[in-house]
Amino acid sequence: MASARPWWKDAVVYQIYPASFKDSNGDGLGDIPGVLSKMDYLKGLGIDIIWISPMFESPQVDMGYDISNYEEVHAPYGTVKDMEDLIAACHSRGMRLILDLVINHTSDQHAWFQESKSSRDNPKRDWYIWKPPRYAEDGARLPPTNWRSYFSGGTWEYDEHTQEYYLHLFAKEQPDLNWENEETRKAIYDSAMRFWLDKGVDGFRVDCVNMYSKVVDFQDAPVVDKTFYEQPASEFYANGPRMHEFLREMNEQVLSRYDAVTVGELPHTPDPRKVLQYVGLGDRQLSMVFQFDIVAIGQNVAQKYNFEPWTLPVLKEIVAKWQQFIEGTDGWTTAFCENHDQGRSVSRYASDAPEHRVASAKMLAMMMCALTGTLFVFQGQEIGMINLPKSWPIDELKDIEALGYYKSMAAATNNDKETMATVMRNLQILGRDNARLPMQWDSTAHAGFTDSKDGPWMRVHDLYPDINVTKQLQDPGSTYSFWKAMIQLRKEHKDMLVFGAFEIFEPDGEKTFVFAKTHRNNKAVVALNFTSDDQRVTLPPFDGLALRVGTYPDAADVEKAAAPGNMRTLRPWEGRLYMA
Ligand code: TEU
């Protein structure tokens, strides 16, 4: 039911990770003026909306997802004035800007938390989640529950001064706000949302959007991982009892008054019916969400970084499921496979071997640009950036989650050599650092990301002389040029490619992925080879299918030479798009 088509549905969104995008002042860290200097580059790629990851004032324990003041900019990134300039720079180019809305928690340095922890009877005590200790039979002090935090260890931190624990689903420096308190919610709406909406931002990517409502009787989670005391506990804090009520309130009181778009981050929600509750247009909660199945591929349920090999039918089923779940409803979906929390898609879903990585990047670009939903591209994806080199040691990693996992595994196994080698391999595939390497702009020192004498805040990928923007801008056969052409094609054929009905063929095939997108009598067929060998595929028997785009430069000639009929041979990691 493609009835309503608000402005954000056919938009292409580009995510900027400010620390790693472009340094303008030589301090080794990206910044807002750096973003401003690349606006024409983004416009040239065909981007409609920029989503910038947190650029707010923050002690940076979790790269800005720990905010100490929603109404200030992290000084090394720039000023509120720079943000106003960025809003204007987007709008003057017909583009929009969305910010990251991190309101499940604040930094422990936020003034609200400083007050809250100052005494048990402080008026803001109840703005965070405080609980008394439990005591074991031997008198040992225990946290209120055994819940595991995302960054290893428990979710409760003891405060000596007031002798209670506070809840933190992430780092102990990221205390969870108490959404049960109406005054807190109002303060969040004012400070984190209205402040920026009044300056003209066009919406938000909403961090941890389903975690605000906890099951408030705070019970222990069942033991599923005997290695640790702390246990996965998402059933007690994800999609909690008041979640939809809170989002409706937020929409009614804030978002709807500005025509703001929202894309919520929705982990722990595999059931399409539950996802639809968030994204139905009529219910006015969120515009769309990032459902997590695609990025959870290869992750273990109990210990996310324990990498598990997977097969192509798994990926195909996930893509099909989240393409089709909105059919016949008023919901909307997203197409994405990268962000700042994930390994690079070429390395995870295809091949980053030197001889295959360009083909792989183009093949994935073709897939993404043909999917229904709002399309999200993460910085560097458009040039086919890949995971960090396998040879890098743990000292090169910066992410609090990666380091937490590394330390907890070392402690649990007494630094067992074999285990720790596996841990490093897991992080090289799945670690968040993979996405956070500086953007590769050119082949000069530090990939043109910074001219700091001391180099960038995080090491630049060894392969930047090969994989960089400047080189690709000049090359019509590059990954960048392919993305640009595919984005244009997506816009020209939006009825099929952005809004069309999705159909999958041979879902069990382990080597190739063939799907169709249909709008009325028009069809697009995408055939993708997910292996490093030639593969035979059967195109669906639609009349008049003709090749429209191929990821290999000679695709048109090869197509002409193909034997009559529906069989085709795809070369390693090749993709072809046909239309009828
Ligand atoms: O992530 C929240 C989240 O649910 C996770 O999937 C996250 O990727 C983490 O790695 C869990 O294992 C958001 C942000 O995207 C992330 O960068 C932040 O660290 C987190 O919230 C806390 O704000």
Automatic annotation (TrEMBL):
<dbReference type="InterPro" id="IPR045857">
    <property type="entry name" value="O16G_dom_2"/>
</dbReference>
<comment type="similarity">
    <text>Belongs to the glycosyl hydrolase 13 family.</text>
</comment>
<dbReference type="GO" id="GO:0004574">
    <property type="term" value="F:oligo-1,6-glucosidase activity"/>
</dbReference>
<dbReference type="GO" id="GO:0005987">
    <property type="term" value="P:sucrose catabolic process"/>
</dbReference>
<dbReference type="GO" id="GO:0004575">
    <property type="term" value="F:sucrose alpha-glucosidase activity"/>
</dbReference>
<dbReference type="GO" id="GO:0000025">
    <property type="term" value="P:maltose catabolic process"/>
</dbReference>
<dbReference type="InterPro" id="IPR013780">
    <property type="entry name" value="Glyco_hydro_b"/>
</dbReference>
<dbReference type="InterPro" id="IPR006047">
    <property type="entry name" value="GH13_cat_dom"/>
</dbReference>
<dbReference type="Pfam" id="PF00128">
    <property type="entry name" value="Alpha-amylase"/>
</dbReference>
<dbReference type="GO" id="GO:0004556">
    <property type="term" value="F:alpha-amylase activity"/>
</dbReference>
<dbReference type="InterPro" id="IPR017853">
    <property type="entry name" value="GH"/>
</dbReference>
<protein>
    <recommendedName>
        <fullName>Alpha-glucosidase</fullName>
        <ecNumber>3.2.1.20</ecNumber>
    </recommendedName>
</protein>
<keyword id="KW-0462">Maltose metabolism</keyword>
<feature type="domain" description="Glycosyl hydrolase family 13 catalytic">
    <location>
        <begin position="15"/>
        <end position="436"/>
    </location>
</feature>
<dbReference type="GO" id="GO:0033934">
    <property type="term" value="F:glucan 1,4-alpha-maltotriohydrolase activity"/>
</dbReference>
<keyword id="KW-0326">Glycosidase</keyword>
<dbReference type="GO" id="GO:0004558">
    <property type="term" value="F:alpha-1,4-glucosidase activity"/>
</dbReference>
<keyword id="KW-0378">Hydrolase</keyword>
